Amino acid sequence: MPRRDYSPHMRRPVIRRNYNTKSVGGGLAAILAVALAGGWTTAVSAQTMESALSRAYSGNPTLNAQRASVRVTNENVPQALSGYRPRITASADIGASITDTNLPSLGNSTARLGPRGAGVQIDQNIFDSGKTRSSVSQAESQVLGARATLRNTEQNVLLDAATSYMNVLRDTAILSLNRNNVEVLEEQLRQTRDRFQVGEVTRTDVAQAEARLSSAQSQAILAESNLKTSIARYRQNVGAEPKQLAPGRPIENLLPKSLPAALTTALTGHPAIIASLHGVDAAELQVKVTEADLYPVLGVRGIVQQRYDTQQFGDNRFSASVVGSLTIPIYEGGQVYSRTRQAKETAGQRRIEVDTQRDTVRAAVVSAWGGLDAAKAQIIAAQAQVQAASTALAGVREEAKVGQRTTLDVLNAQQELVLARSTLVTAQRDRVVASYAVLSAVGRLSAETLKLKTESYDARRHYDQVKGLLWGTQTPDGR
C-alpha cells in the first residue's frame, strides 16, 4: 500500500476549505460571514449593528426607567412654582346643640340649635425671603441634571448593546473555528490510526492525536458555553434574540483626531460631568432655601364665611375679612441653623464629586483610547501570525509526509493556527468595541451621533407639558 495514501496531507483540500488563510487574514467581515453561515440560517435578512442599537435605544428597560426618572424630576418644577400661587381651601360644618337655661325670674328655657356653616379661605404668599425663587431654580437645576444623567445612561446602554453584539459575533466565530478544528483533528486521528496499523507510527503518536482531539472537543464545548452566555447578554441589552448578525464595523470616523482633543471634548461636555455640575447648583440653592426659614415671611389671607343658627334659631350671619400677616422667626431651637450648615456641607461634597467625576472621565478616555490603539496593533500582529502559522502548518505537513516531522509537530502547528485565528477574531472584536468605548468616554455616544433610524426621545417635551399645569392628576401620557 503506497505511503502517500496514509499521509496526514491526504485530506489537505478539506483542511484548506475549513481554514482559508486569505479569508481570515482579510478582516473580520469574511471570517464572521463564514462563521455565521452555519449559525442562524432561518433569518430572512441579517441584523445589523445599527438595527440592534436602535432596538436597544427604544426598548431597553434600564434606559426607559431613566426616562421615567426624568419625568419624575420634571414634576419638581410645578411643585416649586406653586409657592407663587394662592392656596384655596373650603370648609363646612354642621352640628346640633341643646342649651337648658334656668333663671329665677324667667324660669326654665331650652334652646335647640343646628349650627352650621361654610367658608372659603385664600392664602397668598407675598414675600418669603426668596425661598420660592430659590426652590424653582433648584428644581430646574435638578431637571437639567436628570437630563444629563439620561444622556449618560443612553451612552452606557448603547455601549453595552454594541459590546453584546460584537461578543456574539466573536464567540460564534470562535465556536466555528473550534468545531472545524475538531473535524480536522478527527481526520488526523483517523489517519494516524491507519498509519499505526501499517507500522508507520507508534502508539505514542496515536495517543498524542487522541489527547489533542479531546482538548479540542473541550475547547469547543467551552466556546459553545461562552456563546450561549453572550446570546443571553445580547437578549438582555438589545431586547431580542440575535439572528444572523452582520459584521460590525468600527466608528473611528466619529472620534476626535487625537487623545488631547478627546480629553478636551470629554472634560467640557461629558454628560456625567454636566450632571455633577448641576448637582452642585442644586446643592447651593438648597442652602438658600434652608436659610430662608430664618427670615421674615409676608402673606395675606382672605376668609369668607356663612353661618346659620349660631346663637339662636334662624339667625343668619355672613362675614368676610382680608388680613395681612408678617411672620418673623426669632428662635427655632437651632434646627434651621443646623440644616443650613448641613446644606453647606452637602454643597461642598458635590463640588468634590465634580473633581472625582472629571478624574473618572479622564481615566476612561485614556483607557479607551489606549485600548483602541492596542486593538489596531494586535490586528496587524495577528494577521501576520495567521499567515506565518498557515505557512508553517503547510510546511510541517509536507515534511511529515517524508518522515522529517512527527505527528506531534503537525498537531502543534495545527493548534498554533487555530489560536492565531482566534486571536485575530478577538482583536477585530476589540477594535470595534474600543471605538464605541472611546465615543462613550468623550460623551458623544448617542442615537443622534450614530444617526440611528429610530425616533429620538425628547426629554423637554414632558417638561413643557407639566411645567405650567395648574391642576389635574393625569400624566401627559394618559395614566
UniProtKB/TrEMBL annotation:
Gene3D superfamilies: Outer membrane efflux proteins (OEP). Residues 136-226 form a coiled coil. One of its GO terms (cellular component) is cell outer membrane. Its main location: membrane. InterPro entries: OMP_efflux (IPR003423), T1SS_OMP_TolC (IPR010130), TolC-like (IPR051906). Pfam families: OEP (PF02321). It is found in: Cell outer membrane. Keywords: Cell outer membrane, Coiled coil, Membrane, Transmembrane, Transmembrane beta strand, Transport. One of its GO terms (molecular function) is porin activity. Belongs to the outer membrane factor (OMF) (TC 1.B.17) family. This is Outer membrane protein. It comes from Bosea lathyri.
